[in-house]
């Protein structure tokens, strides 16, 4: 009896620990109804026949047009047996694009080794509305969480209204490696330099009857973007502009089935040199991967440290360059601004912001920012009421930085991560690439301190007010690629003035005596971990069964 109970408990616990995964089997095209997971869209998913647990599968996302809009449902909950245009449900999304070729058994996994995702826009067919940008961002989150993919090789394509939506999405979405519009562009686009982080390819038809009056399908509008793009600060990633001769609005079908490679294309358009369709859309996308950079955690340091070092951690498949720039704060001396390691000197009290830019051999680039706060550590005089903490140390009331001194005679050496007094330097961005344990974060006041850095696997971290790429010549100092093993929630430890990171365990560097007795929750009425997991497994089991039944 006890053995049976133990076996059942272990099975429940193991089940509860299973990650959410794709629902389709390898080699299968499957309609996923809206509401099945956290995706705001219903969508089709396809996994290559060789799909396995490797986390390096590229993703191809295709956005459909207004004729394929719908509510994301399946007819009577059953998989589609035909492509039903204007159906208002998910089956209408089988009319065009990669999922249509897969549905018709016209797909080659060897030449097109993608996880294919075809989301359906939530709306009435033939009612013009773009894919919601925020909803698309949540779809990317779902793809990253549920599929064994390479987050740096997510590609976006779209037809007609979906192509116009892709152009809008790419103004803000930084997790896409390269994109193509077939055709479409929401106008006006006044800031083409927004696009300069990623390669783009625009496909149009010479005789597109929808291209009237400077609307979203008028090649003149896209030509404006390409011309302005070329004038943005460089170096720039590749852009291509192709116009099929004697073709109308539908340029996506022959682009995806590759028949377009045999169709004549215009050499020039309004004195602008165009590109032939001489490389498959799939090969063109696959040559690009998105570089990532992590500028490290924000730093708080005492003025007495003298210098602060910031370390950028990068990841890309090709050689890359790193460049630092100050974007706000008092004047400071920068050393090594074209290397991963930036040294800050001549600091004064205040808050600074710095941006690290990584650019790869294909001129794709990404940025991340870090803030540095320098506080005046002038000793507190007797009788100053600016920050006494009874029984837990003292705070400098002017800047809120803990000195790490407790009434029991001082913080434990293994926990405080700080020393009283002393001068030297503080470094942000660890040389170690594994920051999961939160270690490596001595704080201001030590003679030499480093804090963790890691690869940002979620996004580029581009600030909202940094739209343009760095000017040509700002990126130098070629460095080898590094893999950086930090997880999403711990991309570097912060160098602070004896104050603990809220998310760090007690033994993390940077903690103080104030942590003792305050960060443990195991004795506060919380259930033991095994029971908690078992309960979670019981709750999850029906959901897993429903998903498998579906």
Major sheet: order of its strands?
Answer: 1-2-4-3-5-6-7-8
- Described by the principal axes of the CA atoms, the overall outline is globular
Strand tally, please? Answer: 25
CATH H-level superfamily title of the largest domain: Alpha/Beta hydrolase fold, catalytic domain
Roughly what fraction of the amino acids lie in strands?
15-25%
Could you name the CATH topology of the largest domain?
Rossmann fold
CATH class assignment of the largest domain: Alpha Beta
Low-confidence stretches: 1-20, 383-424, 430-467, 471-527, 530-550
CATH architecture of the largest domain: 3-Layer(aba) Sandwich
Largest sheet: 8 strands, mixed
Could you estimate the helical fraction of the residues in percent? 10-25%
What is the C-alpha radius of gyration, as a whole number of Å?
Answer: 27 Å
The total tally of domains equals: 2
Number of helices: 9
């Amino acid at each position: 009896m006890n053995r049976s109970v133990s076996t059942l408990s272990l099975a429940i616990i193991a089940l509860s620990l299973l990650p959410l995964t794709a629902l389709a089997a390898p080699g299968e095209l499957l309609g996923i109804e809206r509401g099945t997971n956290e995706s705001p869209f219903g969508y089709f998913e396809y996994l290559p026949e060789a799909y396995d647990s490797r986390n390096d599968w590229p993703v191809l996302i295709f956005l459909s047009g207004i004729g394929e809009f719908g509510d994301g449902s399946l007819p009577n909950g059953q998989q589609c047996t035909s492509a039903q245009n204007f159906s208002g449900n998910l089956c209408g999304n089988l009319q065009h694009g990669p999922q249509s070729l897969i549905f018709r058994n016209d797909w080659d996994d060897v030449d097109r080794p993608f996880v294919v995702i075809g989301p359906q826009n939530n709306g009435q067919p033939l009612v013009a509305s773009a894919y919601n940008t925020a909803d698309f961002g949540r779809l990317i989150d779902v793809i990253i969480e549920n599929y064994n993919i390479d987050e740096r090789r997510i590609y976006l394509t779209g037809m007609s209204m979906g192509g116009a939506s892709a152009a809008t999405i790419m103004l803000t979405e930084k997790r896409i490696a390269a994109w193509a519009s077939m055709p479409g562009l929401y106008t006006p686009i006044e800031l083409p330099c927004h696009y300069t982080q990623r390669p783009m390819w625009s496909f149009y038809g010479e005789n597109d009857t929808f291209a009237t009056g400077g609307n979203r399908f008028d090649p003149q509008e896209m030509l404006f973007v390409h011309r302005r793009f070329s004038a943005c600060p460089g170096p720039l990633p590749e852009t291509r502009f192709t116009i099929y001769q004697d073709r109308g609005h539908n340029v996506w079908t022959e682009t995806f089935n590759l028949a377009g490679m045999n169709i004549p294309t215009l050499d020039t358009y309004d004195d602008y040199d165009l590109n032939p369709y001489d490389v498959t859309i799939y090969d063109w996308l696959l040559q690009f991967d998105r570089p990532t950079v992590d500028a490290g955690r924000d730093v708080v340091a005492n003025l007495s440290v003298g210098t602060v070092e910031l370390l950028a951690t990068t990841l890309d498949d090709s050689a890359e360059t790193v460049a630092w720039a100050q974007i706000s704060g008092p004047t400071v001396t920068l050393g090594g601004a074209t290397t991963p390691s930036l040294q800050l000197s001549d600091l004064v009290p205040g808050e600074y912001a710095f941006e690290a830019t990584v650019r790869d051999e294909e001129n794709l680039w990404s940025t991340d920012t870090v803030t540095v706060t320098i506080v005046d550590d002038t000793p507190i005089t007797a009788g100053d009421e600016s920050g006494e903490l009874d029984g837990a140390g003292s705070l400098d009331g002017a800047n809120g930085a803990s000195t790490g001194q407790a009434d029991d005679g001082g913080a434990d050496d293994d926990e405080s991560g700080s020393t009283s007094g002393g001068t030297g330097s503080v470094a942000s961005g660890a040389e170690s690439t594994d920051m999961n344990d939160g270690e490596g974060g001595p704080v201001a006041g030590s003679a030499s301190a480093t804090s963790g850095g890691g690869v940002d696997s979620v996004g580029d971290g581009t600030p909202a007010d940094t739209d343009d790429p760095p000017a040509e010549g700002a990126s130098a100092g070629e460095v080898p690629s590094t893999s950086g093993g930090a997880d999403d929630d711990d991309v570097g430890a912060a160098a602070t003035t004896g104050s603990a990171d809220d998310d760090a365990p007690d033994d993390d560097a940077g903690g103080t005596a104030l942590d003792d007795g305050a960060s443990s929750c195991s004795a506060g009425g919380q259930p033991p971990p095994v029971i908690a997991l078992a309960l979670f497994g019981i709750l999850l089991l029906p959901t897993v069964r429903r998903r498998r039944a579906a």
